[in-house]
């Protein structure tokens, strides 16, 4: 059994009793799910339902410890509250993680058991795809659960949300280029993409179409080979460390979180950071380090919101053109954040947080006005 003192860090985050906790770090609800027969061990974290049901994906990952899994769920769910708020959605923030290697333990029975736990929350949490889960998995989960998005088109779903995630990241990158260099075009710019999985390889296509010079890296050789086969002119860096030290105009972290830290920020040559990964800032203060070096950071949860916009559109009947039109507004939202950052004299990440928190407070407050019945 884990000693209480070892768990206090997680519990203090949930209840916001840690004096060093970040603003908005408390969570409404955290659910631990366990089904021995299927091997399911999952965490569902609901950060906020101020704007509506908590929408966020399910990550399937072989975490080193259960505490690490809980911490990731807390980080990701908080990010979803801010992401959904900045995307203009009437949805709160939540996230779930399933502990284990999806290539080894993922089964129909496990996914359906997980679906029953999500169903037990009666709509407070709506799930979707994330790292380690796919459209086909959502279809399986939906056999036990009504609160699933990111389903396949044959079931009326939005399909692969990576399509609009990459599109939104590209719009955010264009906005950063506009703010930094006076033009939204990436033509002739050298862009490094770290992680060319579900989102990264679509982003490469957008960049090449816009005339950018692209350098890639990924831990999986098959992912690199796939991109190189489609785009032979793409350069390949040996690893992420080599990529960030390469001569770049833009750096796009598109793998797991924590990409911007005390080691990577001083080594960056790029003048813009705009990528798809969640929680790119390893700890508070990194946003200031970037600003001090003159590096323009496009807040991750703002520019990678295309995917959640896509799956959220599914809730009322999916229309791709409508969802893409909403995702295209990421360009304007990102410019608004840069303008606020300049006027307030703060890094863009701080400006984005302020806008998100303002919307959650102002719109969430309206729920105190009693209605005869819920809509």
Automatic annotation (TrEMBL):
EC number per UniProt: 1.4.1.23
A Pfam family it matches: ELFV_dehydrog
One Gene Ontology cellular component annotation held by this UniProt entry: cytoplasm
Keyword Nucleotidyltransferase on entry: no
Gene3D superfamilies per the UniProt record, alphabetical: Leucine Dehydrogenase, chain A, domain 1 (3.40.50.10860), NAD(P)-binding Rossmann-like Domain (3.40.50.720)
Primary localization: cytoplasm
Pathway(s): Amino-acid degradation; L-valine degradation
Residues annotated to bind NAD(+): 195-200
Keywords: Branched-chain amino acid catabolism, NAD, Nucleotide-binding, Oxidoreductase
PANTHER family linked: LEUCINE DEHYDROGENASE (PTHR42722), VALINE DEHYDROGENASE (PTHR42722:SF1)
UniProt similarity note: Belongs to the Glu/Leu/Phe/Val dehydrogenases family.
Name recorded for this polypeptide: Valine dehydrogenase
